Amino acid sequence: MPGFDDVLAAAARIAPHAHATPVLRSRTLDALAGCELHFKAEHLQRSGAFKFRGACNAVWSLGDAGAARGVVTHSSGNHGAALALAARTRRIPCHVVVPEGAVAAKLAAIAAYGATLHRCAPTIADREAACEQLRRATGAELVHPYTDPRVIAGQGTATLELLCTAGPLDALVVPVGGGGLAGGAALALAARAPGTALWLAEPTGAAETAESLRRGERVTGFLPDTVCDGLRGTLGAPNFGMLSRHGAQALVVDDADTVRAMRLVWRHCKQLVEPSSAVALAAVLANPERFAGQRVGIVLSGGNVDLDALPGLFALGR
Amino acid sequence: MPGFDDVLAAAARIAPHAHATPVLRSRTLDALAGCELHFKAEHLQRSGAFKFRGACNAVWSLGDAGAARGVVTHSSGNHGAALALAARTRRIPCHVVVPEGAVAAKLAAIAAYGATLHRCAPTIADREAACEQLRRATGAELVHPYTDPRVIAGQGTATLELLCTAGPLDALVVPVGGGGLAGGAALALAARAPGTALWLAEPTGAAETAESLRRGERVTGFLPDTVCDGLRGTLGAPNFGMLSRHGAQALVVDDADTVRAMRLVWRHCKQLVEPSSAVALAAVLANPERFAGQRVGIVLSGGNVDLDALPGLFALGR
Q1: Which of A167, B40, B62, B130 sees the fewest Cβ atoms within 10 Å?
Q2: CB–CB of B310 and A308 under 8 A?
Q3: Top-level CATH class of A52-142?
């Protein structure tokens, strides 16, 4: 389990490579939400998502001999691209196992950062087996998208920066999928802003975090059904433990509300964020009584939108 | 005719109201273009376009008595919204004449800033007559979208700020429609960066600036046919004079290239810019030999995209 010291160490480790992203404001969205919104713009992070922080911390945590053997992961999304770019910053090999049927544009992005793609059948068992095989064959280090402690500590740096820039917050709202970003946020808040409530925004079609927190035990086996492609992963075991002990609370949001919130950010902030980012703003807008008059931090987690899929996405948010 | 002193005065006058927008960079776009691109992010200006600078300068140039009678203009686009917001910053009335058939979302934006809308038939003669009638009836001051010297001086502040932030530039590329932004750029460059070449990016379907500069006299009567809705205006007479004397050169760009450039900015910068903005990047990408290795400034002029019209727009850029 990572601790706050690991977040501080990650901040120093990734500083030469990652962007210190800005915190954005919008008078119009503040008026709509009835509170003061401070958006941490991680869609402007390198590789277009906060994922670069954790990947970069993992890559630069390796000893020289281990690093030379490279890194491996399975992800057809932002973590794959982030690890590929992080590996490039250290000039080491990166292997990414991607399932058949993944979006071609996303695979092209991972390949463009110099990673080697390995295709496999689209089940989680196949993906993990392919990873394990590659790890044994190459000696590459496995970097899990959200349970790896180096990844969680790296993601915590986003909240650390947000607190530095925005000042005291009554609440922080982050999207939750596997729980890497949220776990890192819990570490940073516990140490630096224990009075700030941590809210986890989750799509209705992948709401196992809400269910897990309600039951007090980690629920698995959900079949995700949501446009938030970054939030389809199952909440990790260490992540559940961290969030549960921290007292984080979940807010569940319909995809239609998420797409409407995404369009609001596009229209009023002129920032291209992906649905998995907008779920946090949607959670605030759907629960005005919980945030009225508060200073609220929101992590805009990524901006890797498939532009060719927009018509279908917009149809959902009418 | 405005001079550089008017640009400096405008900068001081609008400073309490307008944003000093950032200058954005992208490694990926630099690599694609083969030069160093410095994007002045005027889509992040208030009202979502550089137009707020000129409108704000005009509104705050008025004496108290004149200001109390309000301002009037005809525009269904960014100038109308910008003047409405500028008038609101001074709490004075604003009348905007809009043609029948204008995009409902744009009219809603103008109304949301508190302006009174007046509908008229969609010819330029009808729009000017309606403006004149309102001016006589209310005593409101006419603020023309691009020939008004206060507007041109205000737009010059965008280039002034870009030069301050980005440092010396070999070239500056701005979109040209009526010539307000370009005229202001000429003033700023002549005084502060006489060695910087001024390029005017213009859609093929509204290329009367290129034709006017070629002939050495202002050509009018074009029927614009372009997706760049901000660039359909006819080059103004004072604007032509300023650009022609300055030695500005035009680059004509197909709409398909403009839409592709827009998508590149969306994808790699995560910034929602409108087609009228992207024409400048498209001009650089289509003319690599002219800009190779240079430090190039580009004004991203606005971000007011009609999201409901995206499918048609994207079809064009395939």
Answers
A1: A167
A2: no
A3: alpha beta
Beta-strand ranges (E) seen in chain A are 23-24, 36-41, 71-74, 94-99, 116-120, 141-142, 171-175, 197-203, 249-253, 295-300
Candidate from A272, A310, A311 with C-beta closest to B270: A272
Q: Which CATH class is domain B4-49+148-316?
A: alpha beta
Report d(CA A149, CA A133) in Å as an integer.
22
d(CA B227, CA B57): 29
Phi, psi of B87 (to 5 degrees): -60, -40
Say if the Cβ atoms of B273 and A271 lie within 8 Å. no
Paired tokens of B183: 């005229």
ipTM for this model: 0.93
- Give the domain A4-48+148-316 fold: Rossmann fold (3.40.50)
For chain B, the C-alpha Rg in angstroms (whole number) is: 18
CA distance B177 to chain A (A): 22
| Domain ranges across chain A | 4-48+148-316, 52-142
Domains A4-48+148-316 and A52-142 share a fold: yes
- Quote the minimal CA–CA distance from B112 to chain A in Å: 11
Closest by Cβ to B272, choosing from A44, A271, A308: A271
From B160's Cα to the closest Cα of chain A, the distance in A is: 23
* pLDDT tens profile A41-99: 999 999 999 999 999 999 999 999 999 999 999 987 899 999 999 999 999 999 999 98
Contact between A266 and B307 using a beta-carbon 8 Å cutoff? yes
pLDDT profile of chain A (318 residues), mean per 10: 97 98 96 98 97 98 98 91 98 94 84 94 88 96 97 98 97 97 98 98 96 96 90 94 98 97 96 97 98 98 90 79
Kindly identify which residue of chain B lies nearest to residue A262, measuring between CA atoms. B307
Could you tell me which of A253, A211, A265 has the C-alpha nearest to residue A228?
A: A253
pLDDT in the model for residue B99: 86
Q: Report the residue from B48, B267, B311 with minimal CB separation from A270.
A: B48
Mean predicted lDDT score pLDDT of chain A: 95
The three-point CA angle A168-A172-A178 to 5° equals: 145
Interface of B with A (CB under 8 A): 43-44, 48, 263, 266-267, 270-273, 303, 305, 307-308, 310-311, 314
